[in-house]
Amino acid sequence: MNDHEALKHLEELAVRLGMKILYESLTVDGSFRPGGYCRIRGEDFLIINRKASVKEKIHILVGALKRRDLSDIYMMPSLRQLLDDSFDLKEG
Description:
The chain has 3 helices and 5 strands. By secondary structure, it is an alpha+beta fold.
C-alpha cells in the first residue's frame, strides 16, 4: 500500500470511528503547523494543515487513531500493520 492509499484508508477509519477531519491552512506567527487531534464538546476532531505532506498527514491520523482501542475494529491487515508498527501514542 502506498502513502496515498494509506492516507485514504486512515481517513476512512477515522470517520468510521466518529472523528471529524478538517483540512485547513494552519500557520501560527508565520510558522507552519501540521495540525493534530483535539476534543471539543465531546467530539473528536483532526485538524490537519492542507499543505502538510502526505507523511505528516499519516502521522497525525495514526496518532489520533492510536488513542482508541482498535482491537475489535476490522481493517485491512496492511492498515493494522501500519498502526501496530507506529510508535505508541496512547495516553496512559
